[in-house]
Amino acid sequence: MDKQKLLLHSCCGPCSTVCIERLKENYDLTVFYYNPNIYPEEEYIKRKENQKKVCDFFNIPIIDGDYSEERWLNFVKGLENEREGGARCERCFYFRLEETAHKAKELGFDIFGTTLTVSPHKSTLIINKVGKEIEEKCGILYLEESFKKKDGYLRSINLSKELSLYRQNYCGCRFSIRREN
Question: What is the pLDDT of residue 181?
Fold first, then answer.
């Protein structure tokens, strides 16, 4: 029996490690690196290079989405001062997952998902709620998952060390950068 074709949105190489490890046996997996929220562009490029390194290690194809922070900023306009993990983040999840669903349909995938649920700093409940809304809207299945289960985050840290991956110290957008006082 053929495996379902899964387009997996990935926020970064480190988070994708454990997700790919867990999914590659059961799905025909492709990673979609789509993160126009990341600031500055040099950071985006560094994270993309690490994502490619992970995909090469697992021998998984990668699709590079367009980088347009301006388009993302317009989408979250008015939410700039929201707390980390609040309404701006939920909107950001929607932005990236909706693009993933559209890309999955366009390219003939059966299902889409995301690595975002591996992070202990992200609400799995909110991410999966957004994914299911997009499933309904776009007519393509969403993989409802919590990759932080079974020590997923710890496993991602260990795999990142093994692969000598760059691990960022902020989520990605200009509003999430921790400022030293």
Answer: 32
Task: Kindly report, residue by residue over 140-167, the tens digit of the pLDDT.
Answer: 999 999 999 999 999 999 999 999 999 9
- Pull the structure tokens for residue 33: 């690196």
Beta carbons of 22 and 143 less than 8 angstroms apart: no
| Residue 180: pLDDT over 50 | no
Which tens digit of pLDDT belongs to each residue from 12-37?
A: 999 999 999 999 999 999 999 999 99
Which of 61, 54, 82, 36 has the alpha carbon at shortest distance from 162?
A: 54
* Number of C-beta neighbours around residue 43 at 10 A: 17
Amino acid letter, 87: A
Instruction: List beta partners, residue 34.
Output: none
Residue 78 backbone class (left: φ over 0; alpha: ψ -120 to 50; beta: rest)? left
pLDDT given for residue 57 in this prediction: 98
Q: Does domain 4-162 have CATH number 3.40.50.2300?
A: no
Domain ranges of the chain: 4-162
For residue 167, give both structure tokens. Answer: 């691990």
